[in-house]
TrEMBL record:
Residues 84-158 form the Transcription elongation factor GreA/GreB C-terminal domain. It comes from Parvimonas micra ATCC 33270. This is Transcription elongation factor GreA. GO terms for molecular function: DNA binding; RNA polymerase binding; translation elongation factor activity. Pfam families: GreA_GreB, GreA_GreB_N. Residues 6-76 form the Transcription elongation factor GreA/GreB N-terminal domain.
């Protein structure tokens, strides 16, 4: 099965690698210790501490596999080579909502790094999809999750 490319900045890749290292070296040891202690409580069939520790172990292992796959399929966004004529992953875009004249600034990132509270939206989000490949001055219509349609004008495209 082909995995899809995961767009990441160099900083985003570093964060994922650090998180993966933490899970593999620290969290695995912590959970192994919890399981060992829970085993000492006796009968495993009625041992909620043991069950909880095993569930936590499964979640950590699942997260490790997910991070390994994301890192393996990472496509690093080279911000130096970023074209500011069109909207691409890695660009910071200033949008003006046509009706209200409200200005918004977003950096387009891969889904692994998106954080709307920090102004980072995914290239797979409704706004991200609508503006990818567009140029300064273009207008786009975006259907929001609530069903409303909002029109934006791309005012500026810049490197981060």
């Amino acid at each position: 099965m082909d995995e899809k490319e995961i767009f990441l900045t160099a900083e985003g890749l570093k964060k994922l690698e650090l998180e993966l290292e933490e899970l593999k070296t620290v969290k695995r040891k912590e959970i192994a210790e919890k399981i060992k202690i829970a085993r000492d409580f006796g009968d495993l069939s009625e041992n909620s501490e043991y069950d909880e520790a095993k569930n936590e172990q499964a979640q950590i292992e699942e997260k490790i596999v997910k991070l390994d796959n994301m890192i393996a399929n990472a496509k690093i966004i080279d911000e130096v080579e970023l074209d500011t004529k069109t909207v691409n992953v890695g660009a910071t875009v200033t949008l003006v909502q046509v009706e209200s004249k409200k200005k918004l600034e977003y950096t387009i990132v891969g889904s692994a790094e998106s954080n709307p509270l920090e102004g980072k939206i995914s290239n797979e989000s409704p706004v991200g999809k609508a503006i990818l490949g567009k140029k300064k001055g273009n207008k786009v219509q975006v259907q929001l999750p609530n069903g409303n349609v909002v029109e934006y004008k791309i005012q500026n495209i810049k490197r981060n």
